[in-house]
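During the reporting period the student researcher (J.K.) took over the structure-prediction task from the postdoctoral fellow and processed the backlog of single-chain submissions. One of the processed entries is reproduced below for the supervisory committee.
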Amino acid sequence: MYKIIKPTTEQELAAYFHFRWQILKAPFNFPEGSEKDEYELVAEHRMIVNVNNDIMAIGRVHFNTAEEVQIRHIAVAFEAHGKGYGSLIVATLEKVAIEQGAIRAVTNSLESSRAFFEICGYTKFSAPEALRKLNRIHMLKKLSAQQFLIHPKWCQELQSTWENTIPISDQMGIKIHQYSGTTLEVRASLNKNINLHGTMFAGSIFSLGTLAGWGMIFLELKRKKLEGEIVLGDGNIHYHKPITMQPRAQVHIEHYECDYQALNNGNKMRVDLTVNILDGDTPVAEFKGAYWVLPQKKTTD
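J.K. obtained the following structure tokens:
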């Protein structure tokens, strides 16, 4: 389980900047302190920490103009590369920017980071001469209030599938919020799931977790160019706190396990995954699901 936090205390900020130096500057023998610049006090900072409060990734966003933000200092723990934390921190910073009125985001990165930012939806544009002299590339992404970070058609198909085949999803106000390729976030309406105590029904939280897990499998099958019928085999949830504000469910690829070879061989495939349930930014529950993907039946003439 992980959580995204805004470093505010002296201890959190010290850990945040030390991590930035350790990942981005120390390998090139820059001294500690070189990781900071003049924008720190006016920027928004975020970091992802695991259950042991170890930092997995960090990043920063600041406004260049009233409509444009710049994403900078994306750093991921060396042992966490390839697990989706980089795209998750970028998506988090974009969300912060959108909430503050930004309509586009830019990044001036090294050529070695180009592929990563392209996955996040950024496009290379002609860079000013000053950036070219620094061997930097200029990349831009248009932001929208509700954006599927990649594969919007898949997300639209998933939303339609829920609405047409699982009516409870529409009754609960369940909507796909973001999909980065490694993380799926699904949200529900609190007003449609509220009990007499003013909190979300426990059964609704379970359903939100179930559908988020189902949706991640749906999108992963699309990514792998596979087909099959998805069913829940077993589900368990641990509730820590009630939901009183914004129900959110997040599925991260790091907490997703399966053997695609089984489905490729025409056999049913088991998928084990974990869904983190949040109330706004506060973790409140953890859903663990064991799903089965049944191979499509072959038709005969």
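The committee noted the following: The domain at 2-142 is CATH 3.40.630.30 (Aminopeptidase).
J.K. will present the remaining backlog at the next meeting.
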